[in-house]
Amino acid sequence: MYVVVFRARIKALDDDYHATAERLRELALARFGCLEFQSISQGEDEVTLSYWPDEQSIRAWKAQADHILAQQTGRARWYASYAVQIARIEREYHHPNLQVE
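Given the sequence above, the corresponding C-alpha cells read:
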C-alpha cells in the first residue's frame, strides 16, 4: 500500500475549490482505486493523505483530466505553495478500537 501526502500553503479557497475537492475525492475513491482519503486544514496549512494499493493507481490518478485541471487551478488560485510525497507503507498497526475504513 502507498500513501500520497499533499501539503500546501493556502492562498485562497473559494466555493469552486470545495466543490472540486469533493468531486475529485469521490472520483478517486470510486474509479481510481483510492482506498482512503483524508484532508485537514489549520490556518494557512492543508494536509491531505490518500492511500492507494499500488503506484500504477497513483499514476493513473495523476494523469486524470479533471485532476490535472484542478492541479492547474490550484497553482493559479488556491495554493501559494505545495509539496507532494509518495511513500510505501511497509507495516501497519491498529489499536483494537480503531475503526479503519
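The CA atoms of residues 23 and 36 lie 15 Å apart. Try to locate this feature in the C-alpha cell string yourself.
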